[in-house]
Amino acid sequence: MNIGILALQGAFEEHKKVFESLGVSSKEIRQKKDLSGIDAIVLPGGESTVQGQLLRKLDIFIELKKLIEAGLPTLATCAGAILLAKKIENDPDSHLATLPVTIKRNAYGRQLGSFKSLLDFDDIKDYPAVFIRAPYFTELGQGVQILSQNGSEIVAIKYKNQLAMSFHPEMTNDTRIHKKFLEICGNG
Ligand code: GLN
To answer: For ligand 1, is residue 82 a contact (CB within 6 Å)?
Structure first.
């Protein structure tokens, strides 16, 4: 299995290290041709506006959108989830728009740097979720399944081949979410 990790900006190295620790090879995606031969894609956290601009400028946007719509297993964290959302509540632009949800950027306030919260994620109990200027989901379309809530806020969802979350599973030593993603890739 070869996991593509979008490596334009943000926390891509950290995902690479997690997959390495699980014995799975990955490849950094920096241009359109890197997308060939991958079995899954990771969209990392960072700055969604910058990532969205780079996807267009480097001509990766259309091919990536096609692959995700065609069923390529997709793991999106934080800014990555913003890239997938059909609608961004506090931003007029949307990006890949493959995920029928509304997401709110910097939903915990712009000034709130980061915090940790112990969450249940699907059948995973007590997952130490790291939030950094995080978004959360405010509306879900048909077929979107909630995997995790932080109190009343929806912070992780699954829709077909797309797994998207507000927090950063690559920033803890707990690899259970990456393992779950690999299971999904295997089953898909
Ligand atoms: N606040 C960032 C954005 O709106 C996301 C933060 C992150 O990825 N940690 O794009």
So the answer is: yes
User: How many angstroms separate the alpha carbon of residue 142 from the centre of ligand 1?
Assistant: 25
Pocket test for ligand 1, best of 106, 114, 168, 172 (most atoms within 8 A of CB): 106
Centroid of ligand 1 to alpha carbon of 131 (angstroms) = 10
Tokens of 46: 């960072």
- Active site positions, annotated: 78, 168, 170
Q: What are the φ and ψ backbone dihedral angles of 104, each rounded to 5 degrees?
A: -115, 120
Q: What is the pTM of this model?
A: 0.97
Please state, in angstroms and rounded to a whole number, the distance separating the CA atoms of residues 19 and 47.
22
Helices 12-21 and 176-187: crossing angle in degrees, nearest 10, is 80
- The response to whether residue 105 sits with its C-beta less than 6 Å from ligand 1 reads yes
pLDDT (tens place) for every residue of the chain, 188 residues total: 999 999 999 999 999 999 999 999 999 999 999 999 999 999 999 999 999 999 999 999 999 999 999 999 999 999 999 999 999 999 999 999 999 999 999 999 876 678 999 999 999 999 999 999 999 999 999 999 999 999 999 999 999 999 999 999 999 999 999 999 999 988 65
Q: Would you say 168 and 148 are in contact if contact means Cβ atoms under 8 Å apart?
A: no
Q: What atom in ligand 1 is closest to the CA of residue 51?
A: 10
* Rounded Cα gap, residues 112 and 134, in angstroms: 9
